[in-house]
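so the lab meeting is tmrw and i was supposed to have these ready like two days ago... anyway. pasting both below. for each one the top line is the aa sequence and the line under it is the structure tokens. i havent really looked at them closely yet so no promises
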Amino acid sequence: MEIDTETVLKIAKLSRIKITDSETSDIQKDLNRIVKFVKKLAEIDIEGTGEFSFGKTYLKDMRQDSVTINDATDDILKNTKSKNQNFFTVPKIVE
């Protein structure tokens, strides 16, 4: 399947993209390269190749979550002059 100028313009119209004449030829070349690449992929023999299972996560392989309380408020606020109780204070920016 060869992508022609008419097809590029139709795709641009459907995508609501404005393209110039010089861009049309560049896009046509790119789309034809993509189609050629996909055709090459279709030629690959995948007979006997198993399913790709990278990234599957099983619950038994996951670590158990544990709740820890780490209250470092005093350590964090000791380095500022602008504080009110346990919070940072910042200049008012909305009037």
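ok protien two:
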Amino acid sequence: MINNYEGLFIINPELKEDDIKNVSKLIGDSITKNGGSLTKEENWGKRLLAYSIKKFKEGYYYKADFSAPADAIAKLEAAYKLNADILRMMITKR
């Protein structure tokens, strides 16, 4: 069954603009590779964090709305946790 999801990602703020675009492209590619489709993506830019994450006080926020099979979410979360450029991520069902 295909469900709608929203993913919020905090990306390493020390990356250059091109590297940030590559990470956001990688996020979208992972979704399509696992049988999902990206419906909307938003770059929120660099923002101050409420608390330090891996000694960073800022992070680059990226939001992706997508639809995917329910069993693909665990695979996506595992892949994103392995990426050192993604500091935090949260995927919620819409």
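from a quick look at the 2nd one: Residues 17-33 form the longest helix (17 residues). The domain at 2-93 is CATH 3.30.70.60 (Alpha-Beta Plaits). will dig more after coffe
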